[in-house]
Amino acid sequence: MAQPRFVRPKPSPSSSGAVETISSANLFVANCGPAVGLSHDAIAAAFAAFGDVIGVCAADESGVRVIVSFAETCSAKAALEAMDGLPCPDLGGRSLHIRYSVRQLAPETQVNDCVPVSLVDSELHIPGLFLVHDFVSAEEEQQLLAAVDARPWIGLAKRRVQHYGYEFCYGTRNVDTKKRLGELPSFVSPILERISLFPNLDDPASLNLDQLTVNEYPSGVGLSPHIDTHSAFEGSIFSLSLAGPCIMEFRRYSEGTWKAASETVTAADKSGNITRKAIYLPPRSMLLLSGEARYAWHHYIPHHKIDKVKDEVIRRCSRRVSFTIRKRL
Fold it and tell me: Given CA atoms 17, 18, 19, 22 in this order, what sign does their dihedral have?
């Protein structure tokens, strides 16, 4: 089951116009947790002096911030007033930093917006975009997943990655050609051979794909809108989906209307400066981005746990793994 998400409550204006702090039965407590040798049970016992504690959970992945939930708001208020900013003898004398916190609606209530989702590439009418279903078999899928799971992952903020051939540097959005990681691993060789037979390739013999990035996306994690760096990779980009499905959206912006990845673009952009299309990527499918699809359209995976495809609601799996195969410039 997904961990509940808690956020800082929004201040509420009173009838007199002053801003009031909203109380809550949940407290965000910093400077204590498993990473500093304090178990959730020990934290619950320390806060139980102020009332019935119904649970303690991690506030984030740091291991030093927790959420303490009381049965009653008055208990949380008493604990905050008595313990905030002061050393707690029952928790190793650590000074705690406490504020109210409220539970946020679970992200699984979100469903992709009104952009129609296509099942086949021909419905999108984007030159250079091709999708092949069942590019690998179910047995091959399991073999590929076992191969990457047997190798070390690199942890990013919300997902895990592996790089082969050349490492992709997310800070510069480029590859360091001086740091070659070696040949692509043998487990990807059958995919490369099959790619050479991919339909719609202008010159399969000139591919020479030499960079592989494996991404693991937990349920609900997507990808911000972007175009793979022109200066880092040339030609076609191939993306194999494994383990779980997702929606991939494509956005084409009129000149001067590009929005930063952190900005939200509504489904119906009234200015008419954006064209949006989406396609469903099932497990074991291979996506090819070339030409206009590669260089003119931003691709994007919405951060959802549930997607709506035609009239069907599809829940994403616990993980989706993608193999992105490219050629460095």
Answer: negative
Contact 167, 175 (CB under 8 A): yes
How many whole angstroms separate alpha carbon 97 and alpha carbon 99?
7
Q: Could you give the CA distance from residue 134 to residue 286 in angstroms, rounded to a whole number?
A: 8
Mind giving me the DSSP string for 123-155?
A: GT--TTEEEETTSS-HHHHHHHHHHHHTS--EE
User: Which segments in the chain show pLDDT lower than 50?
Assistant: 1-2, 12, 14-20, 106-110, 256-271
Asked if 96 and 84 touch (Cβ cutoff 8 Å), the reply is: yes
Q: Which residue is listed with tokens 């994007």?
A: 300
* pLDDT at 255 (0 to 100): 58
Which is it for the CA torsion 21, 23, 24, 27, positive or negative?
positive
Give the global pTM: 0.63
Of 329, 322, 271, give the one whose Cα is nearest residue 299.
322
* Cα(254)–Cα(54) distance, integer angstroms: 53
Closest CA to 314 of 106, 114, 111: 111
